[in-house]
Write a structure and sequence with these properties.
The chain is an alpha+beta fold. It folds into 3 domains: about 170 residues, no CATH class; about 180 residues, Rossmann fold (3-Layer(aba) Sandwich); about 110 residues, no CATH class. It has 24 helices and 20 strands. β4 and β5 form a beta hairpin.
């Protein structure tokens, strides 16, 4: 902020003997010879009479606050995804007042609905969006779901490995293995006995099973076999061929037995996992019975947990029997598919969110993690909400000139509030993700009427889709109520800066400088920026002159000094206008 009073000599301000420089000396000398109330219309000073600034209660730094509150009351009836332009002077005081008034209105909308991003399991009825699903529920419900699922996963990290390490499971698995072994070995033994009765042996070799002629319990060597009569050899060859075929059938049946074993083992694992998951999940589905989307997700997640119980068993075995802390379980990437990522309101706690930028990522959100590969379907935690979601059911507040400077932002906002969904970006090229986040916020764009006209010129559709509210006029009629408000604002500024009181004539001088009398009723400017600078310089001037209270002459000197400084800056191209020097 440019402080035009900084050139005042500090020793002079504290009562020292040094003199101000030539420029300040000229101003001071001129002020000294003027009567205390010179330039102040006596009729304008009348409302304050003999009162000083200390006789008034401090007020908010805007004029017409109650009128603006009444005009913005229509926002209480606004629907989610509605858009409004709020006309007001571009000053810091009005910006804060609009923020406060919008916060009052946001409080009437009730609890915001939250969004929970979860994995879109195949069993979920809702159509998945890129492997992720967005559940809509009140914020507190979404947070309870996130906590409940996290506790469930933590519990299963202990109970599932324990179930598969239990004696009952081991006995059941050994029984299946015995059935496989006995079924296979029994068939081989029966075939061996049958072949032995016909002097044929079934032999186990390193390469598998083989058949060979036998005599008196011993295998006939090839040389002896070749020396047999041709008719006897043919008879033995026929028997060998028969038993080779039967052996092939037994070995083929072994594959069937193994398949049957793995099917039955899988059924056993699913039964054990299902019982464990069902016991762990307990009454969690009943807690969310009012929310069909959440109920469907829990049903699908239970099926997925049952089918992927081996993940928990493998993690436990990798831990070599050591207990895993909850934070370890929560951070395990193998369990990322079961995380419930809640996108609740993270902006202004009062329900007003001011985005720090107007690109799509800030407004609509991002799917991905800045430094590494962009998130895939299973990583719900990689979804970061933008301002349109974090505002909840409150307001997204944007300054009109920012919107006009960033013209790419309006089509994004227009599409989001028209459809009710924000489309986050993914990747470094601003590509729109397939994940759609439902929004319930309202858009409030603030600026002067000229900004609204420029916005409407940019897109004529603005007149149809954006409501217009003239909350604060650039000028207000100088009524007794406004006079009292003005005095209260002066009192607040003096109190905040720790200045000495201002007399009634001085307040009248300030008000007169900001009053336009070219109307039937005098109009007071609503732009109060720079008022604090005038009061501070007038306070310094009054102390230099030895005044126990700041007077009209001190105010006149401050006003002249400010006008001269602004003129000098404008001449050298350092300032574009009054409002810019105040910020």
């Amino acid at each position: 902020m440019f402080r035009f009073l900084q050139r005042l000599d500090k020793s002079l301000a504290s009562g020292g003997g040094q003199q101000p420089d030539a420029q300040f000396k000229a101003v001071d000398t001129q002020a000294q010879v003027e009567p205390a109330a010179k330039g102040v219309d006596a009729s304008l000073a009348a409302p304050f009479g003999g009162k000083t600034s200390s006789d008034f209660e401090p007020r908010a730094r805007v004029l017409g606050l109650e009128a603006a509150r009444g005009k913005l009351a229509r926002l209480e009836r606004s629907k989610p995804c509605s858009m409004y332009f709020i006309a007001a002077p571009r000053t810091s005081g009005h910006a804060k007042a609009i923020m406060d008034l919008l916060a009052e209105q946001a409080g009437a909308f009730g609890a915001s609905e939250g969004l929970a991003v979860v994995s879109a399991f195949d069993a979920v009825g809702a159509e998945p969006s890129g492997g992720l699903q967005v559940l809509r529920a009140p914020v507190d419900v979404a947070k309870r779901l996130s906590t409940g699922v996290a506790e469930l996963v933590e519990m299963l990290g202990v109970t599932l490995p324990a179930a598969f390490d239990s004696d009952s499971y081991k006995v059941a698995r050994v029984s299946l293995e015995e059935e496989l072994r006995s079924g296979h070995d029994g068939a081989i033994d029966a075939l061996k006995r049958k072949a032995q009765a016909q002097n044929i042996g079934i032999l186990r070799t390193p390469q598998g099973y083989a058949v060979a002629p036998m005599h008196e319990g011993r295998v006939v060597s090839p040389d002896v076999f070749k020396a047999l009569p041709e008719g006897l050899r043919a008879d033995v060859d026929a028997k060998l061929s028969v038993f080779e075929n039967e052996l092939s059938g037994v070995l083929s049946n072994r594959t069937t037995l193994q398949h049957d074993f793995w099917v039955r083992l899988r059924e056993l694992d699913r039964e054990v996992a299902g019982l464990t998951v069902r016991a762990a999940i307990g009454l969690l589905p009943a807690e969310f019975a009012k929310y069909p989307q959440v109920t469907a997700f829990l049903v699908a997640m239970k099926e997925d947990l049952t089918a992927n119980a081996a993940l928990f068993v493998a993690a436990a075995r990798r831990a070599q029997g050591h207990a895993r802390a909850p934070v370890e379980v929560a951070a395990d990437p193998r369990f990322a598919r079961y995380r419930v990522h809640v996108l609740s309101r993270t902006g202004d706690d009062r329900g007003v969110c001011v985005p720090q930028g107007l690109d799509r990522a800030i407004l609509c959100g991002v799917v991905g993690n800045g430094g590494g590969p962009w998130a895939r379907a299973s990583n719900a935690a990689a979804v970061r909400a933008g301002a349109l979601v974090t505002a909840g059911s409150g307001f997204v507040l944007i300054e009109a000139r920012e919107l006009l400077r960033n013209r790419h932002a309006w089509p994004i906002l227009k599409a989001a509030y028209k459809t009710g969904f924000a489309s986050p970006v993914t990747g470094a090229l601003d590509q729109v993700s397939s994940v759609a986040l439902q929004i319930s916020s309202r858009l409030a764009v603030t600026g002067e009427v000229e900004d609204y006209l420029a916005w409407r010129k940019m897109d004529p559709d603005v007149n149809r889709v954006v409501g217009f509210i003239s909350a604060f006029e650039p000028q207000v009629a100088l009524t007794p109520t406004i006079e009292q408000d003005f005095a209260g604002i002066v009192r607040a500024l003096i109190k905040e800066a720790g200045l000495q009181p201002l007399d009634g004539a001085g307040m009248a001088a300030l008000m007169h400088e900001r009053t336009d009398t070219n109307y039937g009723t005098p109009q007071l400017s609503a732009d109060l920026d720079g008022l604090d600078e005038v009061l501070e310089f007038a306070d310094q001037t009054a102390k230099v002159r030895g005044h126990a209270m700041t007077e009209a002459a001190d105010i006149l000197a401050a006003l002249k000094m400010r006008a001269d400084t602004l003129g000098l800056l404008a001449h050298h191209g350092g300032v574009a206008g009054r409002s810019e020097t105040a910020t």
